[in-house]
Amino acid sequence: MNRRSFIKASSALAGTAVPMFPLSALAADETVVSSIHDLSGGLDIYGKPMADCMTLAIEEQNAAGGLLGKRLKLATYDPQSNMQLYAQFAQQAALKDKAAVVMGGITSASREAIRPVLDRNKTLYFYNTQYEGGVCDRNTFCTGVTPAQTVAKLVPYAMKKWGKKVYVVAADYNYGQITSQWVKKFVQENGGSVASIDFFPLDVTNFGPTISKIEAAKPDMIVSALVGGAHIAFYRQWAAAGLTKKIPLASTTFAAGNEHIVLSPEECDGFLISYSYFQNLDTPENKAFKDRFYKRFGKDYPNITELAVATYQAFKLWAEAVKKAGSLDRMKVIAGLESGISVNGPSGKVLLDAETHHCVLNVSIAEVKNKQLNIVETFQQQRPTDTSAVCNLKKNPNDNQQYVIKA
Questions:
Q1: Alpha helices for 246-329 (secondary structure H)
Q2: What are the phi and psi torsion angles at 141 (to 5°)?
Q3: Residues 6+ apart with CB under 8 A from 48
Q4: Alpha helix stretches (DSSP H) within 121-224
Q5: Which long-range contacts (C-beta less than 8 Å, at least 24 apart) are formed by 11-16?
Q6: Is the dihedral of CA 365, 228, 13, 62 positive or negative?
């Protein structure tokens, strides 16, 4: 399946999400939940599965009787990977829709466009993407993994397998810049060295000069923190240069947008990745989830991503907190979320850490093989220790910033 075919297929799937609606259409016995995920633009490879999981979660909750006697209504927005639209739609979700909660954002820049708007308008916010860590805001909950949970496991594993000289390529924004420093830290802690760290804007598609630099540097391995549809070109050009089998690659981001399906096995077999969720996790909870998901969206759905499952689990955490609070009042729901709440989701146990508003998660390492992600090792209940080093919302509930954590 090429990228165009995949995007077309994904668009059809994402089209099942509930469209935007005017506030006047909201009935008295309905509660709005807003979804702001890219259904077009360069980040749609991540956003479409996230939007689909929002649809599934809402439909399941309504089938179970809704929440507090009210039916949930999903307001879905497509920010088109445009920072101005993220802020605009966050404002609309808060003021026009009067959403009880907003789930949205992919890049850190998109989160930081949404977060202050929802803080100002006192609207609860969940950010469900793996990121560089450091957000400390009582109104915001981050359910994706941070470097202390995945990069800390992936780098030593790959170095033990391949060698100690590492070359890093990364997206040129917060995630890539900060994550690359975590990669460097873990490389050095494990007795290795970093030959170079090269950054690329999200729209870059020509990696020829960098590939030549990598060849000249002769590293034992590459670590990639590239992001988005344009950066798929790196892996294609890497393979075309005949380097896939010569210099192995580990990535903190690969397959989050189903790149392993868009690319051929010859272009990416053998890559190592680490996430909190893989589709082939062998647990009763994941099997039941996949059965429901495929029944809703079809057996030919390309792959259920970690970001999609993090979104689904975030909704479940919010719904449990609403039930525990017995109210949709924002502060009461926040108190419920801070009460040690957890859910058993497709990825395993998901525990909400009250001090950081991040999650304690199981983490696995997987190898790409013939368009599949085969788990090679799993680590139970990994804590977001990077963020907990700088954030304690129990002691400092009025803290409201993103710390740049020094690796």
A1: 259-262, 265-268, 284-297, 306-325
A2: -125, 130
A3: 10, 11, 13, 14, 37, 38, 39
A4: 151-162, 174-189, 208-217
A5: 11/39, 11/40, 11/44, 11/48, 13/48, 13/49, 13/52, 13/297, 13/298, 13/301, 14/39, 14/44, 14/47, 14/48, 14/51, 14/52, 16/52, 16/55, 16/296, 16/297
A6: positive
Cβ neighbours of 78 (radius 10 Å):
23
pLDDT for 127-182, tens place per residue?
999 999 999 999 999 999 999 999 999 999 999 999 999 999 999 988 899 999 99
Q: Calculate the alpha carbon distances from 184 to 31, 151, 273, 319 in Å.
A: 46, 10, 17, 39
pLDDT higher than 80, residue 186: yes
Q: Is the pLDDT of residue 209 over 60?
A: yes
For residue 7, pLDDT over 70 is answered with no
CA distance 309 to 315: 10
User: Can you tell me whether residue 182 is helix, strand or coil?
Assistant: helix
Is a pLDDT exceeding 70 seen at residue 21?
no
Q: What are phi and psi of 191, to 5 degrees?
A: 80, 20
* Other CB atoms within 10 Å distance of the CB of residue 88: 16
pLDDT tens digits, residue range 41-83?
888 889 999 999 999 999 999 999 999 999 999 999 999 999 9
pLDDT band, residue 332 (cuts 50/70/90): very high
List, in order, residues 6 or more apart from 299 with CB less than 8 Å away.
none
Name the token pair of 55.
């649809």
Q: Which domains does the chain have, with CATH numbers?
A: 3-146+281-363+378-402 (3.40.50.2300), 151-251 (3.40.50.2300)
pTM: 0.88
